Amino acid sequence: MASQLIELQGRSLQPSGVPAGVLDLFIRRLSALCPLQMHEAAAIAGLVRDVSRVSPHTTILEDGIPANEALILLSGLACHYKVLDTARRQMTGFVLPGDFCDYGFLSSSPVRQCVMTLGPTVMGRIDLKQLSALGDKLPNIVLAMMRGASAEQACARELVISLGARDAQQRMAHCLCELYTRLRVVGLVDRGQFELALTQAELGEALGLSTVHVNRTIQQLRKKKLVAMAQGKVRILDFPSLARIAAFDGRYLRS
Q1: Cβ neighbours, 10 Å, residue 112
Q2: According to the model, what pLDDT value does residue 13 have?
Q3: pTM for the whole thing?
Q4: Which of 7, 57, 95, 198 yields a CA-CA distance of 20 to 30 A from 121?
């Protein structure tokens, strides 16, 4: 469907200087949440404007600030985070290509946590008035967004479970299984491999582990021949075994 959309819409779907196919990921993500007809997909894709590149470690949404547009991650990686009084930062979720960066706009709520890029990214923006008008005409688009918000909340709940009840190896395995599953939906897994622009320190921020503990845990999974990680790439060598370690059940991602 996405490739057909590019053919139908031409340059309006592929701004100059933007990596080819980035809008495809947005449509794939929405269609995975709620199957969209061709005219529905073309309509939502046609609203994406101001596509731009953003540098790594840029805060793109501030906690408590009302949104005046819907921000979409078209490529790269971002995260939700909270800075504590001690100046320590806790990541609370990942934003992957095709995702809205925050779903507060669905209820006219302000952004609840900061969102920061973790590597080079491409962002797109949708005017909220245009999005609301489109949703009135095409309710499947609203349903897809609501399911996306539900899946984001489910990921946050799973992270709470990891921090409270899973050991280091289970946390890491669950995180990698979740990322693998989410990226595969939008076609960003190739023969078990996907890009992950995260340092071990940043993984530690997400999983509540020290950098030393993260390194040790990755080495344990490598020795079991479950994963290979190097130079910003992850290869899942044995997904069923990795999922068993984490007791991973991906149904929560299909909200």
Answers
A1: 14
A2: 45
A3: 0.90
A4: 7
- Backbone torsions φ then ψ of 20, nearest 5 degrees: -60, 140
CB-neighbour burial class of residue 69 (10 A; exposed 0-12, middle 13-18, buried 19+): middle
pLDDT classification of 221: cutoffs 50, 70, 90:
very high
| Residue whose tokens read 């819907």 | 70
| Helical pair 2-9 and 38-45, crossing angle rounded to 10 deg | 60
Across the chain, where does the E strand assignment appear?
49-54, 59-61, 69-75, 78-83, 89-95, 114-117, 121-127, 193-195, 227-230, 233-236
Q: Which residues pair with 250 in a beta bridge?
A: none
Q: Where are the beta strands (DSSP E) in 24-167?
A: 49-54, 59-61, 69-75, 78-83, 89-95, 114-117, 121-127
